[in-house]
Amino acid sequence: MSSATIARLTGRMYLTILLNMDALSQTFAALADPTRRAILARLATGAATVGELAEPFDISLPAVSRHLKVLSEAGLIERQAEAQFRRCALRGEGLRGASDWIESYRRFWEDQFDRLAAFLEDPAPDEPASRPSREPKGKARVRKPRR
Q: 95, 27 in Cβ contact below 8 A?
């Protein structure tokens, strides 16, 4: 959905769409943003505080917190309070639904490509001999009316 479309939605309509989003849609929506993907890539190397996650980005700390909220609601990260710090960690099982969905399509397309390869490798079966046509192909035979 484009930002212009979202801007036209009333608050109630937007909430309805948001609340009806299934887990897979929520995961892909969270992964759609490059900043959130970069945060996930950083967390793949180990847990980090919100401040550490915000360092490489030229955005405000509240903006990073909003990205972390989206990732958390999608089940991709978990946030824990440690004294005055909030530590974030990657939740591997959060990607399981997306991975399973993608895997099913990967298997489907591999099967299709295997079938295509087998079809292309087999020589065409001999066609039954047919009576050769006297008419060149593509031209219709025109009959003259009887008198």
A: yes
